[in-house]
């Protein structure tokens, strides 16, 4: 995860406090509920100019910082490949 | 009546024997019906109906056959609950919530716990209560501020709970606790605690508008249980809640509300048709007939939604082992919100239709007054507003609006 991504995540994780947000941090444990998840999704989509396809909209995607970051990178890759 | 002598006609299935548990449910419904008015008046638990649920072993409905139970799934839970609710919504709700707890134990309990527990559960010796609400969490199921302590292989519980249905009468509880050593209140454990492992202190009373006989008193629970009493492993509750607890709760509640509305409608029709002379209803009035039809539509709509949800839940369990797709979770929540509103509206419509004497006064054979008060709780029982907030977020997830 890069620093920008962690900065996007942090406001939606009300129990994260000042602690480091790692790849394996379980987002639900840090306070990501279904409402915050949608807000976070919109923030990520706006920041990176991407759209999460339906098959990514599953609990697995939002399980940890690492799984979400991996999804973002893969969607960005697919978006760029489609544009070129 | 014995199983095999009664038959039910199912569409496309011809005549099939009524399942044996139905006889038990009918016996409980008869006892519940006899005592419901008194229990309602006194805001006292339906002890006679619970005793009959034990005697008939209806409490063992969700326990697998190999452990001595009826092996009932969600459909059987719904059907038994509807049968009870036609007589008394409180008894139905008590039963449905017990089955919710029992199903969670059956599915997610430690093998050692199950060996000891399932035969007694099957024999109807254990009425399971639910302790999932906490002061300060706003009724939010998925957080807990009460930390579980681990000490030498035991789990130490100290917990207050503002609303515990049948709290004075439960033989054991499933209790949500913040996981030992959890960094946040969203890491929640589910723990099985028998009453004899606990000191149970009733800290207040219960004097509500309806659902009076649920006797949902506030409790403080203190005690210690073996580590094998953790249901679904450490931090396991959120997955159980989303995949099982939520769906079975909504199916059970909807069945209780549907049965209540159907029972009320049946009593009104029986009363009107059984009258000689003034019938209480002007059946030559197109408006009266039209209003009656709308009431029936509400009942049939909820029934259709319940049956459809049961099919989708079964399909999800076959495919994923739990209710996991967004569209299925939305449907399960829709069942709760719509059933709560339609069933109340149906009984409210009946009150309007039959008028003051048989709709508003206690003591009418229509029983509308109690059904109305009981059903008023439906939208508040895990508040529709809160559920719809989550549903709105889920609706945004389901981009193509997949209809299941």
Structure explained in plain terms:
With 84 residues, chain A is an all-alpha fold. Chain A has one domain: ACP-like (Non-ribosomal Peptide Synthetase Peptidyl Carrier Protein, Chain A, Orthogonal Bundle). Chain A contains three helices and no strands. Chain A is globular. The mean pLDDT of chain A is 92. Chain B has 404 residues and is α+β, with helices and mostly antiparallel strands. Helices cover 50% and strands 14% of the residues of chain B. Chain B has eleven helices and ten strands. In chain B, strands 3-6-7-10 form a four-stranded mixed beta sheet, with helices on one face. In chain B, a hairpin with a 3-residue loop joins strand 1 and strand 2. The radius of gyration of chain B is 21 Å and the shape is globular. The N terminus of chain B is likely disordered. Chains A and B meet through helix 2 of A and helix 11 of B. Chain A: It holds the Pfam family PP-binding. Chain A: This is Carrier domain-containing protein. Chain B: This is Acyl-CoA dehydrogenase family protein.
Keywords:
heterodimer; A: 84 residues; mainly alpha; Non-ribosomal Peptide Synthetase Peptidyl Carrier Protein, Chain A; 3 helices; 49% helix; globular; B: 404 residues; alpha+beta; 11 helices; PP-bd_ACP (chain A); Carrier domain-containing protein (chain A)
Task: Write the topology of this structure.
The complex is a heterodimer of chains A (84) and B (404).
Chain A: H1 3-9, H2 34-48, H3 65-83
Chain B: E1 7-10, E2 14-17, H1 20-42, H2 47-55, H3 74-85, H4 89-108, H5 111-122, E3 128-131, E4 149-151, E5 154-164, E6 172-178, E7 188-194, E8 198-202, E9 217-226, E10 230-231, H6 237-274, H7 286-320, H8 326-354, H9 356-359, H10 368-375, H11 384-397
Helix pairs in contact in B: 1-2, 1-3, 3-4, 3-6, 4-6, 6-7, 6-8, 7-8, 8-10, 8-11
What is the CATH homologous superfamily assignment of chain A?
ACP-like
The CATH topology of chain A corresponds to: Non-ribosomal Peptide Synthetase Peptidyl Carrier Protein, Chain A
3D shape of chain A: globular
- How much helix is in the residues of chain A? 40-55%
Roughly how many Å apart are the termini of chain B?
39 Å
Indicate the low-confidence ranges of chain A by residue numbers: none
Order of helices and strands of chain B: EEHHHHHEEEEEEEEHHHHHH
